């Protein structure tokens, strides 16, 4: 039976590519990759040879048609992204939906996901969390998003890059308050893996004092808002407070 496999790849340490992932990649007739050169290096490391096509945000629709044609011919197709689990802040959503709608099986080969790895070592509540991925790149839109999250009680999980980590922490501090506890997980599974917890103010100071700590890839996890006050109000009072909140600047 032709299948589209969604295969997770390492987020740093190549030892994290599972035996089954290697097997499925080696058996693929076609590998759809976010960046074929990047995936080419991964495949070369494992001595795997396969035909590749690129799938990124700008060509996913055409690529879906091509992948479906391959499946119709009985080919095994694999989707990978540059790192971690495809579709998690990565391309693939349109492809998976189109392939499923065309009636083909889509099967996961699970593995690394940066935010799950970060959550598992953060020491923050993990029973409920809100994965937000990347915040908007412009500060105005970013603050607006953060405002909308200010009273959320689950642990908040964000992806961040070298370029914006400092300004994002600043915005989080001004919106959530400098005393909100957070954890920064940097370069997980790589040489300079660092996981650091503290108030947002402490984290900003620590990062400001050491420019090396601003380099690499980050997951930022923020403790949820403490639930208090409004939950004890009667529902009608709560409704009015919400209405007022929406109207006020
Ligand atoms: N699909 C990936 C996954 O499953 O985690 C995420 C892809 S997203 C384009 C890349 C972002 O993931 C980075 O900017 C960073 O926020 C996070 N990330 C990826 N690798 C990481 C690592 N080794 N340590 C910390 N964060 C990482």
TrEMBL record:
The keyword Transferase applies. It catalyses: cytidine(1402) in 16S rRNA + S-adenosyl-L-methionine = 2'-O-methylcytidine(1402) in 16S rRNA + S-adenosyl-L-homocysteine + H(+). One of its GO terms (molecular function) is rRNA (cytosine-2'-O-)-methyltransferase activity. It is found in: Cytoplasm. Gene3D superfamilies: Cobalt-precorrin-4 Transmethylase, Domain 1, Methyltransferase, Cobalt-precorrin-4 Transmethylase, Domain 2. It is an enzyme of class 2 (transferase). One of its GO terms (cellular component) is cytoplasm. Keywords: Cytoplasm, Methyltransferase, rRNA processing, S-adenosyl-L-methionine, Transferase. Its EC number is 2.1.1.198. Residues 4-203 form the Tetrapyrrole methylase domain. The keyword Zinc does not apply. InterPro entries: 4pyrrol_Mease, 4pyrrol_Methylase_sf, 4pyrrole_Mease_sub1, 4pyrrole_Mease_sub2, rRNA_ssu_MeTfrase_I, RsmI_HTH, SAM_MeTrfase_RsmI_CS. Catalyzes the 2'-O-methylation of the ribose of cytidine 1402 (C1402) in 16S rRNA. Belongs to the methyltransferase superfamily. RsmI family. This is Ribosomal RNA small subunit methyltransferase I.
């Amino acid at each position: 039976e032709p299948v589209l496999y969604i295969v997770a790849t390492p987020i740093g340490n190549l030892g994290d590519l599972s035996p089954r992932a290697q097997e499925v990649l080696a058996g693929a007739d076609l590998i759809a990759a976010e960046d074929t050169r990047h995936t080419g290096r991964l495949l070369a490391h494992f001595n795997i040879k396969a035909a590749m096509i690129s799938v990124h945000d700008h060509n996913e629709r055409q690529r879906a048609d091509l992948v479906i044609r391959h499946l119709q011919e009985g080919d095994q197709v694999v989707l990978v992204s540059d790192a971690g689990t495809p579709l998690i802040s990565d391309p693939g959503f349109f492809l998976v939906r189109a392939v499923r709608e065309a009636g083909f099986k889509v099967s996961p080969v699970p593995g690394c996901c940066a935010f799950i790895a970060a959550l598992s070592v953060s020491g923050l509540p993990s029973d409920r969390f809100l994965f937000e991925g990347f915040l908007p790149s412009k500060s105005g839109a970013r603050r607006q998003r953060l405002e909308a999250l200010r009273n959320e009680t689950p642990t908040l999980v964000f992806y961040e890059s070298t370029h914006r980590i400092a300004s994002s922490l600043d915005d989080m501090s001004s919106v959530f308050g400098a005393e909100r506890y957070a954890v920064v997980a940097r370069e997980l599974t790589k040489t300079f893996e660092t996981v650091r917890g503290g108030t947002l103010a402490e984290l900003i100071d620590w990062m400001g004092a050491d420019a090396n700590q601003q380099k690499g890839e980050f997951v930022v996890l923020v403790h949820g808002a403490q639930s208090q006050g409004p939950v004890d109000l009667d529902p009608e009072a709560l409704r009015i407070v919400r209405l007022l909140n929406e109207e006020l600047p």
